[in-house]
From TrEMBL:
Positions with a binding annotation for Mg(2+): 9, 381
InterPro entries from the UniProt entry: Ac/propionate_kinase, Aliphatic_acid_kin_short-chain, Aliphatic_acid_kinase_CS, ATPase_NBD
Origin species: Microvirga terricola
Gene that encodes it: ackA
Family note: Belongs to the acetokinase family.
Catalytic activity from the UniProt record: acetate + ATP = acetyl phosphate + ADP
Gene Ontology molecular function, alphabetical: acetate kinase activity
Protein name: Acetate kinase
Cofactor note: Mg(2+). Can also accept Mn(2+).
């Protein structure tokens, strides 16, 4: 039986997963799927690597079906209907590693889980859900190795100055820092830059991760030196439903003058702002594009998105001291030619020139100028988790031959 890696991305009501065969140098995805509607109307769906549906199941008694039931369903499906595979190890996308988890970690001790739990206060909407499956699997399948991979870790290479807020030292020392997120995505892009152009690998590159969540990262020789997200995943660019950079005075005004509770203000800034809030229509770029001609609010949301991206890129070019390449990735970055065209038009001062026909065909290289160049590179966060798992498990095996996987 082939021991496979299961890569989990757990949210409040969903469990997304990919199953990898790790036997080759580069782990190969064999199945992708999700359980959505956890706690309400659960739906388990698995597709093979060609996109064919291989499992599709729903439950009537949704309220009794939590994350634990979802995990049991996944493991049982894999070990009964896919008899050639056995669960070798589980990798988890964990949003926050704080100051000290600057690399992936084997969760082989409850003390590690306790440390990660203390970070829940820094990412209350994500971290508790990310940690839940780790806890469940440690209890139910204690022999299965588990690796936690962090969205913040890639940014720990930044100089201290890029991680600081201008606030009293005591607050900084208590952990109020710019952590940055989307690190698994940036690590993937960084690792493949050389496949596209050696100049990118050795040079100054800005990566625009533009999906439902959105941020920018400045890479110097492949390492993060600055990013737009800060203490929380609210900062930086406007996103599908998140506000992006906001004068903190707005929050005080909401609390003091508008009598919002902290929870209500948080909900507005996380779930009712960004493209959705400005358009009053949708958080989805495809919907906004479809309505933009007749709906000025949809057009304004799109324009604000491109304007903020362009401004923040200007700031990161200053942090890098120049730019050799710009990379677009994630749902909007990889697919929305009009956003890319608007951003590149706003960067002509930096020497960017769009190759409009390459851009309309979503080709990898979309700049007419050779320097600086602009690219579309697909991201693959799950592959990064699988690669990190391989490294962590192989190091653990060398240290203690008893670790399986
Ligand atoms: P992600 O979070 O990376 O899945 O990205 C989601 C965002 O990508 C949504 O705003 C989608 O509307 C957008 N998106 C996906 N496909 C397309 C497309 N073909 N054209 C424009 N936007 C797209």
């Amino acid at each position: 039986m082939i021991p496979v890696f299961v890569v989990l991305n757990a949210g409040s009501s969903s469990l997304k997963f990919q199953i990898f065969d790790p036997s080759d140098m580069k782990p190969k995805v064999i199945y992708r799927g999700m359980v959505e509607g956890i706690g309400t109307s659960p739906h388990f769906l698995v597709k093979d690597c060609d996109g064919a549906i291989v499992a599709d199941k729903t439950w009537d008694d949704g309220e009794a079906f939590g994350h634990e039931e979802a995990l049991v369903e996944l493991v049982t499906w894999m070990q009964t209907s896919r008899g050639e595979y056995r669960l070798g190890a589980v990798g988890h996308r964990v949003v926050h590693g704080g100051r000290f988890f600057d690399r992936p970690v084997l969760v082989d001790d409850d003390a590690i889980l306790d440390d990660l739990t203390t970070l829940e206060a820094l990412a209350p909407l994500h971290q508790p859900h990310n940690l839940k499956p780790i806890r469940i699997l440690r209890r139910r399948m204690p022999d299965i190795p588990q690796v936690a991979c962090f969205d913040t870790a890639f940014h720990r290479s930044q100089p201290l100055i890029a991680q600081l807020f201008a606030i009293p030292k005591e607050l900084t020392e208590s952990g109020v820092l710019r952590y940055g997120f989307h690190g698994l995505s940036y690590e993937h892009i960084s690792s493949v830059l050389g496949d596209y152009d050696p100049v990118l690998k050795a040079g100054r590159v800005i990566v625009a991760h533009l999906g439902n969540g959105a941020s920018l990262c400045a890479l110097n020789k492949g390492k993060s030196i600055a990013t737009t997200m800060g203490f929380s995943a609210l900062d930086g660019l406007p996103m599908g439903t998140r506000c992006g950079a906001l004068d903190p005075g707005v929050v005080f005004y909401m609390l003091r003058e508008m009598n919002f509770s902290a929870e209500a203000a948080e909900r507005i800034l996380y779930t009712q702002s960004g493209l959705l809030g400005v358009s009053g229509l949708s958080n989805d770029m495809r919907t906004l594009r479809a309505h933009a001609q007749k709906n000025p609010d949809a057009q304004r949301a799109i324009d604000l998105f491109a304007y903020r991206i362009t401004r923040e890129i200007g700031s990161l070019i200053a942090a890098l001291g120049g730019i050799d390449g710009l990379v677009f990735t994630a749902g909007i970055g990889e697919n929305d030619a009009a956003t890319r065209a608007a951003v590149i038009a706003g960067l002509s001062w930096a020497g960017f020139e769009l190759d409009a026909s390459a851009n309309s065909r979503n080709e990898p290289r979309i700049s007419a100028s050779s320097a600086p160049s602009a690219w579309i590179i697909p991201t693959n966060e799950e592959l990064v988790v699988a690669q990190q798992m391989k490294r962590v498990l192989s190091a653990a095996r060398q240290a203690a031959p008893a670790v399986a996987g």
